[in-house]
Every structure is written in C-alpha cells, then in structure tokens.
C-alpha cells in the first residue's frame, strides 16, 4: 500500500528573514548606546568646566586678581563707586557673578571698587596747593590701583626725548619701589597724612612729577599716605 504525499497548507519557516531582523535590532541598540555615551561625555565635560566663583568682596584689586586667577578665573570689567569711609576705599564692594555661583572656568568676574570723592576726577580744591589734574591739586590723577606700571624708560617725543619718570601715584610702597627701580631711578620715602583721600600706605605725591624727563639714577621723592589728617591738620608741604 503506497502513501501519497499530502500537500501541506503551512508556508515554510522564514529563518533567514528573522535572523536579519534580529541583526538590525541589535545594530540599532548599539548605535543608541553609543549616542547616549557621547551625550554623557559632553555633559560631563561641560559640568566639569563649571566651577565655584570665589568671594572677592572686601579685597583689594591686586588681591582679588590673585584670588580669581588661582581659582581659574580672570578679573573682568572694573567699575568704581564713591564711598565716604576711608577704610573702604580701594576695596571691592560688589562682584558679578556672585560668590558661590558655578561659572565656566576662565570666565571674567566683574567687580566694583570703592573710591573716595575726588580720586580720579577731582576739582583741585584739596590736597597740595598746586594745580593738579584730577585729584585735589595732586600733580596728576590718582588711579584706583596699586599695580606696578610696565613702564618704558625711553620714549620718542617730537620735541624732547630721553628717560621719563614713571607714574607711581597711589601705588603701594613696594610696587612704587619696584616700578622706579625697573625704570632706572632711585627713590627716597617720606610719610604724611593725605587730604586728597589717598588710601593709607599708598603713594600720594612724587617729585619729579610723572613723565618728567630726568636722567636715570635721579632720586625720586615719594610720599606715602598715613591716612586722613587728624583734627584737620594741613598736610606738610614738601620742599
């Protein structure tokens, strides 16, 4: 008795097609995982660049600059605000961004520095009896800084040429000495109170005046402020 082959109503198994779909699904999963890894690395790098801003309020400009550089920032825009208390002059009263915020490393931190009335744009009504430009009769405007000046001791002038005395007004004694020495000048130091609001410990007067054409080796007389005069006593007029 022979058995005839009976046709089957079921289609053959598509094993190859199922294998292809499985491979495609695996490739998509791997690509998604790689994308997520890349996004994670970018986020990690960005967050690692966000560092805490240090507090520089109450510091001098030079100290604030040093503090910010150590923390990974730069000193940004500097503006001034007028105060009536001498002890606050020369110090930072505000900063932006505020301390404690996280900012990208290398960002500039803007600060506001306190100055006394007349420092920077005075009317010549106080201080030395001369006709100063900006700070109450001082020979030249007093800037709110205690940084040494990168001074070039030799210049070319249409009429005069030769070494010029650098400007050391309102610098600390140490920075004034360094600036004068680097320009080739000697110095002598005197002390006295300031009626022009120059911060204690900073240069309030120099002779010869800034930018005067003097040979190197000339002795420059610098006066260091001891603060406001007590009882309204006048400042001793230099010789």
The CATH architecture of the largest domain comes to 2-Layer Sandwich
The low-pLDDT segments are 120-160, 232-239
What structural class should be given to the helix and strand makeup? alpha/beta
Helix content: 10-25%
Q: Kindly, what is the distance between the CA atoms of the first and last residues, rounded to a whole number of angstroms?
A: 144 Å
Give the percentage of residues in beta strands: 15-25%
Radius of gyration: 35 Å
The number of helical runs is: 3
User: What is the CATH class name of the largest domain?
Assistant: Alpha Beta
CATH topology of the largest domain: Trypsin Inhibitor V, Chain A
The biggest beta sheet reads: 3 strands, mixed
Describe it for me?
This protein folds into 2 domains: 51-115, Trypsin Inhibitor V, Chain A (2-Layer Sandwich), CATH 3.30.10.20; 117-234, Trypsin Inhibitor V, Chain A, CATH 3.30.10.20. 23% of the residues lie in helices and 22% in strands. The chain is built from 3 helices and 10 strands; from the N terminus they run αβαββββββαβββ. Strand 6 (154-156) and strand 7 form a beta hairpin. The longest helix has 35 residues, at 15-49.
Top keywords for this entry?
Trypsin Inhibitor V, Chain A, three-stranded mixed beta sheet, 22% strand, 3 helices, alpha/beta, elongated, 239 residues, 2 domains
Describe what is shown at a glance.
With 239 residues, the chain is α/β, with parallel strands linked by helices. The chain has helices at 15-49, 61-71, 173-182, and strands at 50-52, 74-82, 92-96, 102-104, 108-115, 154-156, 161-163, 186-192, 203-207, 219-225. It has two domains: 51-115, Trypsin Inhibitor V, Chain A, CATH 3.30.10; 117-234, Trypsin Inhibitor V, Chain A (2-Layer Sandwich), CATH 3.30.10.
């Amino acid at each position: 008795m022979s058995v005839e082959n009976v046709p089957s109503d079921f289609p053959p198994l598509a094993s190859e097609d199922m294998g292809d779909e499985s491979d495609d699904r695996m490739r998509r999963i791997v690509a998604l995982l790689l994308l997520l890894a890349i996004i994670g690395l970018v986020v990690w790098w960005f967050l690692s660049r966000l560092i805490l801003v240090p507090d520089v309020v109450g510091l001098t400009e030079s100290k604030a600059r040093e503090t910010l550089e150590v923390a990974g920032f730069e000193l940004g825009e500097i503006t001034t605000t007028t105060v009536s208390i001498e002890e606050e002059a020369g110090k930072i009263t505000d900063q932006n961004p505020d301390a404690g915020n996280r900012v990208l490393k290398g960002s500039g931190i803007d600060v506001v520095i306190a100055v006394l009335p007349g420092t920077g744009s005075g009317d010549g009504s106080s201080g030395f009896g001369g006709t100063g430009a900006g700070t109450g009769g001082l020979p030249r405007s007093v800037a709110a800084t205690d940084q040494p000046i990168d001074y070039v001791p030799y210049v070319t002038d249409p009429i005069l040429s030769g070494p010029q005395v650098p400007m050391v007004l309102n610098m600390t004694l140490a920075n004034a000495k360094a600036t004068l020495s680097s320009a080739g000048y000697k110095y002598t130091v005197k002390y006295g109170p300031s009626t022009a609001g120059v911060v204690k410990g900073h240069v309030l007067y120099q002779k010869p005046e800034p930018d005067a054409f003097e040979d190197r080796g000339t002795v420059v007389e610098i006066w260091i402020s001891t603060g406001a005069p007590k009882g309204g006593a006048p400042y001793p007029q230099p010789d």
